[in-house]
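Lab meeting notes turned into a lecture example. A postdoc, R.K., suggested we walk through two folding results consecutively so the class can see how the record format repeats. The first protein's sequence and structure tokens come next.
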Amino acid sequence: MSTAGFDLVVRDGTVVSPGRREVADVGLRDGRIAQLGGLMSGAAEIDASGLLVIPGGIDAHVHLTCAALAAELAALGEEKGWVDDFWTGSLAGLAGGITTVGNMTFALPGESMTAAVARDMAGAAAEAAVDWFLHPVLTPPADETVREIGELAAAGHKSMKVFLSDSQFAPGTPGLADAIAAAGHAGSLTLVHCEDEGILRRTGRELIDSGRGALRHFPEARPVSAEVAAVGDAIQLARQTGSAIYIVHLSSAEALDRCRQARAAGLPVYVETRPLYLHLTSERFAEPDAGKYVGAPPLRSQADRDALWRGLAAGDIDTVCSDHAPWTLADKLDPALDVVTARQGVADLETLMPMLFSEGVTAGRISLDRFVELTSANAARLFGLYPRKGTIAVGSDADLVLWDSLERRVVDGARMQSRAGYSVYDGMSVQGWPRFVIRRGQLVLADGDCTAQPGQGQHAWRTTSSQQLSPPAS
């Protein structure tokens, strides 16, 4: 082994990548992992004894609003939207062990996906302290849309997002299958929001007409049947086109069963869930501040929660991502809102990894290897970042989290980095937090002190997704 000097050496930590765990030193040079184990010396060193050294988290599903988009929305007289930009989102991510995010990029009315991507690329380049990649949200299918999908993929944007909850993308919409087929042909993964628009429209109208439009009835407005129907439609699109699909924020046992059956039949169907469904249930909507828990799909039953945890352990669910879409509490609890107009989304970037570790690894529901797969390795594979990211290996980006598995904190959203100013987990005790975070070889978080700066993040160029996930680690 070389004894040559390194920019940074991480000493005596327990290095964890799926399938491998060892106490070893890690030598970092020029933003990459240059050596694992053996003799080494560094210009700087970190004592990681007693800590886990894991790959930086990859949260492939966030909603951050860059300053340019906020300005355009204001000019159009539109609602300002989610309160975190790429800078505050970066701060929240780094505080929770996330070093790379995948942002949903929406086109404004009349705007192309390409123009929307260019705007978010510029905004992220100026604001982000984490690395990023983008998911263009599909605009109404047309010939030019299909061409754009291929062009964006060639530029490294190898994914797109489709909302089946949008009437413009109802089953049988002309051009929808063509767009998904084009994504598959270009090596892109199609992310699908699975709620049936017709069912949502009917249940929402019925609740309001019957005087049950208050936010406490939100779960009834978006029932499990809407998710299951849309998951079935998404699976059919995968079968029809041969293209890979990625079901975002899956929330129910029945929908997971549909995905499990599709996978058993050999269809390229991948599944994400989010923390809300792992840690909370629909009983929260009986509380006076029910509106703060609104997300789509809504919180489900305890039986659904239990099924998702089993799915995580069994490998039926591939990733856990935050769907970070933060509002202020005042915006969420606005008395003018009802079950149809409710503001969807919560802040979850900072709590994603600690909550999953605490309720998963510490509680014995999932293994440590599975935790790393769910928060980093699988997303890297699915989104064309592996092995540059998602693993601790020579040549990979030096994105490392030095994790204190014993540290316990009580969640207090008012003291966290998101501009939301609160957390749906406020008051919960969580065991397992990052002590040090290294992004591409640079120490950016040490004992709660973040030294990252806007613009230090980089666009994470993606190759075609490998879509080959290892069997779940025991």
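The second example is placed directly after the first for contrast:
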Amino acid sequence: MRFFRDLARHDRDESPAEPPAAEQQMLESTAHTLAEVSAELAGWVPTLRRLAEAERLRDLAIGHTTEINGGAVRSIIAARQLRGQYFWPSMNEAAWAMLLELFANRLEGKRIDVAGLAASTQIPLGSALHWIEWLSGRGMVVRDARGADESRALVSLTEAGTDEMRAYLLAALRLSPWVQ
């Protein structure tokens, strides 16, 4: 109510009286508190922007929006370049697809054979066998059996391969909400 009385006095061109010392101290304390709150809120602005961007990217990823911006694309590029730091600079897409599939299977407690891995990654069987051999040579995967039919051999990530995939994906998630 005091605000409206002061406003009415201002409208009548009356000059307001100097507030008493206690009231002045309260006003200064309130102003100081508001300045602190304002500074705290300003500190949250970058975090809130990142959260809003993450929400837009999630919506885009699940088809709720058609908006995309340069920041989202740059996050994908950065996550892709990060692979070279965790694995090798010229990571082949077929090898990467197989590592992702094997990691997902491991997390789900599933086992997969070479033929199933080739089918799920849409890589021709001959190429899958090549890349499994290549990944095996780098200590990332292991085939459980080598019988007459190589396509039926079970293939899985090694402990080292699992650790590298987990480390990379956690780093990529911190880098980019798009990867989530």
